[in-house]
Protein: AraC family transcriptional regulator
Amino acid sequence: MSSRVHLPAAVAPLALERLHSLVENRTVYALEGFELNVFETHRAAARVPLRLDGLALTTMLRGRKVMHLPGRAAFDYLPGESVVVDKDELMEIDFPDASHGQPTQCLAVAIAPDTIRHTVDLLNERYPKAEAHQPWAISAPEYAHLTNTPELTDTLGRLVAVSRTSDVDKDVLAGFTLQELLVRLMQTQARQLIFHDYARYLTSHRFAAVVGYIKEHLTENLSIDKLSALACMSKATFFRVFKREFGLTPVEFIIRERLSEAKRLLRHPLASVAEVGLRVGFNNLSYFQALFKKHEGLTPGAYKKHLAA
Structure:
């Protein structure tokens, strides 16, 4: 039988009796509008129930969990990923690998409803999205399981850092960072919605058509003129709104798509680096190698050798 947490007006604590019995180390930072928890679980367990009265963003830092959410198959929850826990949603969690030597570590940011509402209302009033029928909102549980973007990871890190300080103005600084975190979370969900499921929204979202065109014409010269025309926007508006909704520019998205395809092609043992660069739309080999190293931390050649090792 699952336990339940009833939330105070300002903060949404995550503590549950059974979860506490498994957690050897829990660090809590309670600030205005949110509570930040770092959990370490040192014992293997299965089907640990957790239900919250408010929304929380959880992020895996170390180890592995298996998550059971209503209406979907169980999935591994790994470092570099986040799960949005909706109000009243029952989770059941397995800790298959947790031990004293290799604890499972998870970060949870429980956010007061008024904080979320204020940020969402501000965005919808001042910075509306491209489609009026799809306003800013945190989508849960449909897009609850996310791969963290670099921007979301960076903002989480800064929120942890400011929460740990003893500065007298840390509530103010944390409040600004929390607002950014909510924006980054919504942008991350928007990327998952449109970048990975664009075919579903071709007739209802102008950026879905743009994303589809980019994916189908990666090797071609993809001009902003062409893409903005597909979105029925001026170049300036297209560039500005695309970045606002997804947290990166159209050019940055094209580069990331090309590099992602390059990584896939480099797995082929007979594919050369130069050939792969051309096939994904980079006519300049040096530019391709520099971008690849910037994003992946190693050159295409080193990446290919690593795959073969």
